[in-house]
Design a protein that fits this description.
Strand content: 25-35%
Radius of gyration: 21 Å
Number of helices: 10
Strand order of the largest sheet: 1-2-12-3-13-16-14-15
Number of strands: 17
Structural class: alpha+beta
Order of helices and strands: HHEEEEEEEHEHEEEHEHEHEHEHEEH
Shape: globular
Largest sheet: 8 strands, mixed
Helix content: 25-40%
Distance between the termini: 44 Å
């Protein structure tokens, strides 16, 4: 992987901006892709849209969401302890003792999730786990309600505070790989196509608020009105002791791009992706999706009168945790596969059903 690109990837994942608060990340991405895009826009929903060959009649969208799960302060007690509500699909069982960083009005505020010490719990409490996020509190070290309100008032948002960790075999761990890794892939597609002529108009979307209802992807697709598209998101790797292969398939880190197949995906577009993979010498994995699913592929698919779509997924372990793991080789191969698919598209690809 290109060294400069890898450093950008690390910087992108370090931004502590949860769903609904993505603007800082969008600015970072916009500045990075300026040399590679012909036009850059920010729509009313906060989606960043990076365009190559905007004069082309056929519009093809590729989408990944920049938002991540997080928290928002709902209540502060008299002693200065915070109660938070989730932004997106939080696993409460992972939170006790976890660090958090809040985007306060005076700057970042460090805190941690507090809970009764195990020594003071009875047998029932030890076995129950965390039933509700309201059973936990966030300690920022404040001495009073007034001090806490000054640094992290009600409505302040934040994320689990985790660091990038290099691991063995090109694996890396970090929170927010869902789906900052996908957004990084988008920027790599633009970089790899920067000096190549393409026949279609390419609309690269860094989408907002996917984690709370596919909101950004739906709005962006409606505005672009594309003729075809690919969404990039993460999917469950099953190559660990509780991988649930029977539920998610045989998906492994380092195994290559995961191609979604099923009734929601366009057969003609799947074939084009397969052909590009074969030509580039990229081995792919398959995941069956038997219905519309919770990614922006579904939001694009259901836009206006319908859009032929494909979903290309990044194998990921421990989704929606502070230690999400992806493989850098997979990341690089997915960006290459998408770039080669786009480069091979004719000016008017025949996508969708035909009589």
């Amino acid at each position: 992987m290109d060294k400069k690109a890898l450093e950008f990837f690390k910087k992108l994942t370090s931004i502590a901006t949860p769903t609904g608060y993505e603007l800082e990340g969008q600015r970072l991405v916009a500045n990075y892709v300026k040399p590679y895009a012909d036009k850059i826009e920010l729509d009313k929903h906060g989606n960043l849209i990076m365009i190559k060959n905007p004069e082309a009649k056929f519009r093809f969208v590729i989408d990944a969401h920049i938002d991540e799960i997080g928290f928002i302060v709902q209540h502060i007690d008299r002693k200065g302890f915070l109660r938070v509500q989730p932004l997106g699909g939080i696993n409460n069982q992972l939170l006790p003792g976890e660090r958090i960083i809040l985007n306060g009005p005076k700057g970042p505020v460090n805190g941690c999730f507090g809970r009764k010490a195990i020594h003071l719990m009875d047998a029932k409490e030890r076995g129950e786990g965390v039933k509700d996020i309201a059973d936990l509190w966030v300690d920022i070290g404040a001495k009073s309600l007034e001090e806490a309100m000054e640094w992290a008032p009600i409505g302040t948002a934040g994320v689990v505070n985790a660091e990038w960790r290099d691991m063995l075999n090109d694996n890396v761990s970090m929170r927010g790989m869902d789906d900052r890794a996908g957004v990084f892939i988008m920027t790599e597609v633009l970089r790899k196509l920067a000096k190549r002529k393409i026949n279609v108009g390419l609309y690269v979307v860094s989408a907002t608020q996917e984690e709370v209802g596919l909101l950004g992807g739906q709005a962006a697709a409606y505005g672009i009105d594309p003729h075809g598209g690919i969404a990039v998101d993460v999917t469950f790797a099953s190559d660990h002791p509780r991988g649930e292969e029977a539920k998610v398939g045989n998906i492994r880190l380092g195994g290559g791009p995961v191609i979604g197949r099923g009734p929601a995906f366009d057969v003609a577009l799947n074939k084009l992706v397969d052909k590009a993979a074969e030509k580039a010498g990229i081995k792919t994995q398959t995941q069956i999706r038997n219905r519309g699913n919770g990614t922006d592929a579904f939001a694009i698919r259901m836009t206006r009168s319908g859009v032929p779509v494909n979903l290309i997924s990044i194998p990921l372990r421990y989704m929606h945790s502070a230690v999400e793991i992806v493989n850098l080789k997979d990341i690089d191969e997915i960006s290459t596969l998408i770039a080669e698919t786009i480069a091979a598209l004719p000016a008017n690809p025949k996508l969708g059903p035909a009589l």
